[in-house]
Design brief:
The chain is an alpha/beta fold. Helix content is 18%, strand content 37%. The chain starts with 5 loop residues before the first helix and ends with a strand. It has a 19-stranded parallel beta sheet that branches. Strands 12-9-6-32-30-28-25-22-19-16 form a ten-stranded parallel beta sheet, with no helix packed on it. The protein has a four-stranded antiparallel beta sheet with strand order 1-2-3-33, with helices on one face. The protein has four helices and 33 strands. The chain has helices at residues 6-14, 18-69, 74-84, 128-131; strands at residues 94-99, 113-122, 135-147, 152-154, 163-165, 171-173, 178-180, 188-190, 196-197, 201-203, 207-208, 215-216, 219-220, 243-245, 249-251, 257-259, 262-265, 268-270, 275-278, 281-286, 290-294, 297-301, 303-308, 317-321, 325-328, 338-342, 350-354, 358-360, 363-375, 381-384, 387-397, 400-403, 413-417. The protein has two domains: 18-147, no CATH class; 152-412, no CATH class.
């Protein structure tokens, strides 16, 4: 019986491997294509996220600026930033979407927030053999941009009663938080029966309730202290203002008095039945402080009081009069939103008492001083400031106290990525 040549038989068996080799090569090419396209997508994804972050922050920053100067340029700022970084929003290679307010996520519908979604359509390389489509890469960011709602801040880092409420009336901080930086277990003391209302309470230490009053706010304890947001804000330079009085000025007559902005050496004391109008501008107390007592009436529209010491020792700031008080800060300029500023290193007390007809708007800034707020009107609602930054804060009295910033923002930005 004839036998096959062994060499020919081997050659015939070798031909059966070729289809498997072709299939293996196709698989290797596919893996290589996916690896190359996947790497390009990962690289572009990092770039796209950086662009989305930058564009969202540009929109938020522009929104903060528009608050003071008018206009509505936030969306344009976002698109310009994206275009400057290669996302021209041509609808083919790149798409940039700006939503204000955001439509998705934790900040959906939130005012002063901007959602930016960027998309890059990358041309596929080997992957086009399998999909025939470009590679879509997306990234998203949300930023907030507005003047900061400071609320009430007690900055001292140690000791009990950094914030203490001894009052019977309601203490209301409208749409803003209370910050307490002391790490003491009794840093925040609700020692009165009057309720406290705020958007939140952020406390670096602990909380005690020795008076039984309600706390109508979410409280967070043992958190990191909050830095002074105005620590680098420029203070008025007394040398840049005219001297209006070279000695302590005491006003206690019944005839109306009109004061002009400038430097008052030895401070100002208003008492009795005096009626004082303060013209718009910055009033610098060079020593002596500022006191309004008795039945006096004080009206200042567009005014800022700066309590400091250049030639004479600094004194306290006191509003304790049963007359009408209306202090409205400037609505423009460097000291927009400031009603009272005290030298950062001074521990002279700041004391404001409301009798139902007291309205002090804007921000009171005395970062090293004890601050006392007292409501003594059984009816009515005194507005004792729109926001406070002080060393420590004590609230008392039988009357209600309202802290309402309204439109009187200082130029302190709240611009940050939030998603």
């Amino acid at each position: 019986m004839p036998r096959l040549n062994p060499i020919l038989a081997r050659d015939r068996r070798t031909g059966s491997i070729t289809p498997w080799l072709v299939l293996s090569l196709l698989a290797i090419v596919g893996i290589l294509a996916l690896g190359m396209d996947g790497g390009r997508m990962m690289e572009e994804r990092r770039h796209a996220q950086a662009i989305a972050d930058a564009a969202a922050l540009a929109a938020a920053s522009q929104n903060y600026t528009d608050f003071f100067y008018g206009g509505s340029n936030a969306r344009n700022a976002a698109r310009s930033t994206a275009a400057a970084n290669g996302y021209a929003n041509d609808g083919v290679n790149s798409i940039v979407t700006v939503n204000a307010p955001p439509t998705t996520g934790a900040y959906a519908g939130a005012a002063d927030c901007f959602e930016v979604i960027v998309q890059r359509n990358l041309p596929a390389t080997f992957g086009a053999v399998f999909t025939g489509e470009p590679l879509a890469v997306k990234a998203r960011a949300v930023a907030r941009g507005r003047p900061r709602k400071i609320g009430v801040m007690a900055l001292k880092r140690v000791g009990a009663n950094a914030f203490v409420n001894n009052g019977i009336g309601a203490f209301v901080v409208l749409n803003a938080p209370i910050y307490v930086n002391s790490s003491d277990p009794a840093a925040f003391n609700q020692n009165g029966i009057g309720p406290i209302t705020a958007s939140s309470i952020r406390n670096a230490g602990g909380y005690v309730n020795t008076g039984g009053g309600l706390l109508l706010a979410n409280q967070y304890t043992n958190i990191d202290p909050t830095p002074d947001p105005l620590a680098r804000y420029p203070l008025p330079n007394p040398a840049s203002y005219p001297v209006r009085s070279g000695a302590p000025l005491s006003i206690n007559g019944i005839l109306p008095t009109i004061l002009s902005p400038g430097v008052y050496r030895g401070g100002i004391s208003i008492s009795g039945l005096a009626v004082v109008t303060m013209l718009p501008g910055v009033y610098i107390m060079d020593g002596g402080g500022f006191q309004a007592t008795g039945l006096s009436t004080v009206v200042g529209l567009g005014t800022t009081i700066f309590n400091t010491s250049v030639t004479q020792p600094i004194g306290p700031v006191t509003f304790n009069t049963t007359g009408a008080v209306a202090i409205v800060p400037p609505l423009a300029g460097t000291y927009q939103g400031f009603s009272i500023i005290q030298d950062r290193n001074s521990a002279q007390p700041v004391s404001l008492t409301g009798f139902g007809v007291t309205s002090i708007l804007g921000t009171i800034y005395a970062p090293s001083a004890p601050l006392a707020l007292t409501g003594l009107a059984g009816v009515g609602l005194s507005t004792l400031g729109g926001s406070y930054i002080a060393g420590s804060i004590t609230v008392g009295g039988i009357g209600n106290i309202n802290i309402n910033l309204g439109p009187h923002y200082v130029r302190s930005p709240d611009v940050a990525l939030v998603e």
